[in-house]
Design brief:
Distance between the termini of chain B: 26 Å
Structural class of chain B: mainly beta
Shape of chain A: elongated
Radius of gyration of chain A: 20 Å
Number of strands of chain B: 7
Oligomer: heterodimer
Strand content of chain A: 25-35%
Helix content of chain B: 10-25%
Largest sheet of chain B: 3 strands, antiparallel
Strand order of the largest sheet of chain B: 3-6-7
Order of helices and strands of chain B: EEEEEHEE
Mean pLDDT of chain B: 84
Strand content of chain B: 35-45%
Distance between the termini of chain A: 51 Å
Largest interface: A-B, 40 and 29 residues
Largest sheet of chain A: 5 strands, antiparallel
Chain lengths: 212, 120
């Protein structure tokens, strides 16, 4: 599904933008997440001139170093049952998969935020927690446990616990999620899952030149 | 799209010229979400007297460039020509696009737009 490798000025422009592959002719269109529009507008040089100085290689809104932000949807979303998972004494469990093959090995992650939208019949979610582990055939070690906020998207920072900060990211990240509901019985559905990944490509961020 | 040459010499004095890259015209409009193109601009022109001398509203020139222009005017020397007309100030751009895995990507690039040219 790839177009033939471009040549001439188009290839030079691709190289200048550090894009190695010729992009696919027509991507699967999906709505652009509001957070990505917000980050794009925040980096608009005209907005910066209007009184918001921009630090090079820094994502102000997220408060981290970086020059590339990716919104990566869960690639297993459509294979999941739309029906809520019933607990019957067991914890609701899901597997989410993120395709990170487009991340260059030289990029270093500075923020990896898992965002989930859970739909549950229970209104009282007091004491609910989400457990995050790397997916494996046998139950993997829990790497992170975060409280489930009522009515809001659940956000969990994976950097450090699940994604190493100073290393290349894996080509695929598959996570096993399980919901701990305390003593209550829950029927919950994972409606949406995505990963907001911020990375720093040092090649796009040259060090400041010193004056002689 | 580039700015056409001006009368007299092919380009006249050193200054910023308009260069706009349209993503539609390079066939990238299917996957680049925003912007629709970018105003890259470029520098072109000669750094001769009196244009190279510092003046209000003119391109900023380094002292070294002024000295070199004066020497060239007095004694043209092969191999030691006029200073170059190059970017003096650049600004960044951000590009929002779909990658090959249909992820939405925001990439930020430093020094992509010429804001000002000068003799160096």
């Amino acid at each position: 599904a790839l177009e033939p490798a471009p040549s001439g000025p188009t290839a030079a422009l691709l190289q200048a933008l550090r894009l190695h592959e010729a992009p696919r002719a027509v991507p699967t269109l999906r709505p652009v997440p509001p957070v990505m529009w917000r980050l794009f507008r925040r980096r608009d040089p005209q907005a910066a001139r209007a009184g918001y100085p921009l630090r090079p290689c820094h994502v102000e809104e997220l408060g981290v170093a970086g020059n590339i932000v990716r919104h990566i949807p869960d690639s297993g979303l459509f294979s999941r049952s739309p029906e809520p998972t019933r607990t019957r004494g067991l914890r609701p469990k899901w597997t989410v998969t993120f395709d990170l093959s487009g991340v260059d090995p030289v990029e270093r992650p500075t923020r990896a935020r898992l965002e989930l939208r859970l739909e549950a019949e229970n209104r009282d979610r007091h004491g609910w927690e989400l457990s995050v582990a790397l997916w494996a055939e046998s139950p993997g070690t829990e790497l992170l446990r975060v409280p489930v906020p009522p009515g809001l998207p659940l956000r969990a920072d994976l950097l450090g616990a699940v994604v190493a900060a100073n290393m290349s990211v894996p080509r695929t990240l598959r996570l096993a999620l399980s919901l701990h509901c305390g003593a209550t019985t829950a029927r919950a559905h994972l409606a949406e899952a995505s990963l907001l990944l911020v990375t720093l490509d040092p090649r796009l961020c040259p060090p400041p030149r010193s004056r002689r | 799209h580039t700015e056409p040459g001006v009368g007299g010499s092919p380009w006249g004095a050193c200054r910023m010229r308009r260069l706009h890259v349209s993503f539609r015209e390079v066939g990238w409009h299917h996957w680049v979400i925003a912007p629709r193109g970018f105003l890259a601009n470029f520098c072109q022109g000669t750094c001769t007297l009196p244009e190279v001398l510092p003046r209000s509203g003119g391109p900023p020139a380094l002292n070294h460039a002024v000295l070199r222009t004066l020497m060239h005017a007095a004694t043209p020397t092969p191999g030691a020509g006029l200073p170059c007309c190059v970017p003096a100030r650049l600004s960044p751009i951000s590009v929002l696009f779909f990658d090959n895995s249909d992820n939405v990507v925001l990439r930020h690039y430093e020094d992509m737009v010429v804001d000002e040219c000068g003799c160096r």
